[in-house]
Design a protein that fits this description.
Number of strands: 4
Order of helices and strands: EEEEH
Structural class: alpha+beta
Radius of gyration: 15 Å
């Protein structure tokens, strides 16, 4: 399933074999669709993925420290 970042309420079911093989569940992709709505190209955005992971980690640490 792909969730669009701009409109996170939009979800698109995509067969796993149509996505890059080395991606994981929380990977951020750049996805291009053809006129019929099929994936024409999908590319992993390594920098955006790592940045998002770091932001989540910082938020979790902040929440955990707030409870101390």
């Amino acid at each position: 399933m792909i969730i669009l970042r701009e409109v996170e309420t939009v979800q698109i079911d995509v067969p796993r074999h149509k996505l890059p093989q080395h991606m994981k569940e929380d990977t951020i992709l750049s996805v291009f669709f053809d006129e019929e709505g099929n994936i024409a190209n999908a590319e992993v955005l390594e920098d955006a993925t790592e940045s998002a992971r770091e932001n989540v980690q910082q938020l979790l640490e902040k929440m955990m420290n707030k409870n101390k």
